[in-house]
Structures are given as structure tokens and as C-alpha cells.
Amino acid sequence: MSHESYELKAEARERVGKGSARELRRNGLIPAVIYGDKQPPISITLNTNDVTKRIHAGGFMTTIVTIDIGGKKIKVLPKDYHLDPVRDFTMHVDFLRVSGNTQVTVEIPVHFINEDKSPGIKVGGVVNIVRHEVEVHCPADAIPEAFTVDLTGAKIGDSIHISQITLPKGVVPVITDRDFTIATIIAPAGGLSGEEGEEEA
């Protein structure tokens, strides 16, 4: 499962537009919108510090959030956010309403383990990461925190494909027409001393 769900306090926002948004930011608030689930969008404001803290904690885009608008609680998933390019503070957030049967499209990070058990890395090879994240369709209430790639036994020339990752039930890659590559083990630029194993099929 992804990071533990949390709650954010919000207020309904009557005025919209650039002038209103600037005024909110001066007061330490972020304009945001909740949409989806065949319901009209709701404009809200959130505390800037609360949201920025959550963004920097990691897993922001893959964690269900409960938005409390004056006692009315709505479950959502962050779909997009904009940062000020100069001052790096949050400018705006879009949230998607979710329910038990909502399917979402998210990017899941890929983690690599057991590099010390890879013959290819032991002789100087390196992991060439082709995809740091994999985009998948999955239930909103069952978003994986990460995919783990075990490098045990990986040799120079080996490729790790999506088929080698055990995906949780209901999780399907967006790319379905090929067994795409996640990473490869490649020889270092200076070459290797000694011989490495042949590439596996």
C-alpha cells in the first residue's frame, strides 16, 4: 500500500481568478479544486505550510487524502500541483474525488535491492535505469507505494522487464503492448577485466 492516508482542513472558496489567488497566497493559503466522480467541481483553499510539508514528505501524488470542508469530508487523490518556478512554493493543487471503485492512473516509483548480490555489479557493471517510475492503472484505495526490483544474480547485459515485477492484484501497466524494460546492467565505460556471463534470454 502507498503512504498512510491523512486529512487536510479546507475552506470553500467563493471568489476565483488571478487576483483572488494572489491575495490568498499572501495570506498563507493555496487555491485548489476538487473535481471528478460526475459531480460539479468545488473551489477550496488550503494552508500552504500543510500542503508543502506533504509534498516534500514524498508519495504526495499516490496517497489518498481526506479534505475536510467545514465538517464535510471528501476523499481525493492529488492529480496535479504547480510550484512557483522561482520561490518553490505551491501555487495550486488539483484533486480528483475517489470512491471504493474509482480507477486511477498513477506513476509508481521503482526501487532496486540486492545490488551486492549481482555478479554484474560486483565486477564493475552499473545499473542503467530506463524507468524510474512505471505508470499504471489501479484502484484508488490500493495504490502501491513502490515496485521493487531484485538484482540478485543479474549479470552484465541482463535486462529487467516489467514482467519480472510482481504487480499487486488490480494493478495494470498503462503500456500493455510490450514487455518494456525497467533497467539494464551495463559494462562500465572503461570495459571489464575478465569475462562476464552471456546475456540471458
UniProtKB/TrEMBL annotation:
InterPro entries noted in UniProt: Rbsml_bL25/Gln-tRNA_synth_N, Ribosomal_bL25/Gln-tRNA_synth, Ribosomal_bL25_b-dom, Ribosomal_bL25_C, Ribosomal_bL25_long, Ribosomal_L25_dom, Ribosomal_uL5_bac-type
Cited Gene3D superfamilies: Ribosomal protein L25, beta domain, Ribosomal Protein L25, Chain P
Entry's Gene Ontology cellular component terms: cytosolic large ribosomal subunit
Residue ranges constituting the Large ribosomal subunit protein bL25 beta domain according to the UniProt record: 103-188
Keyword vocabulary terms for this entry: Ribonucleoprotein, Ribosomal protein, RNA-binding, rRNA-binding
The keyword rRNA-binding belongs to this UniProt entry's keyword annotation: yes
Transmembrane segments: none
GO biological process: translation
Molecular functions (GO terms): 5S rRNA binding; structural constituent of ribosome
Residue ranges of every copy of the Large ribosomal subunit protein bL25 L25 domain listed in the record: 8-95
UniProt superkingdom: Bacteria
Function statement: This is one of the proteins that binds to the 5S RNA in the ribosome where it forms part of the central protuberance.
Database matches in HAMAP family: Ribosomal_bL25_CTC
Assembly behavior: Part of the 50S ribosomal subunit; part of the 5S rRNA/L5/L18/L25 subcomplex. Contacts the 5S rRNA. Binds to the 5S rRNA independently of L5 and L18.
Family assignment from sequence similarity: Belongs to the bacterial ribosomal protein bL25 family. CTC subfamily.
Protein's name in the database: Large ribosomal subunit protein bL25
Organism: Rhizobium tubonense
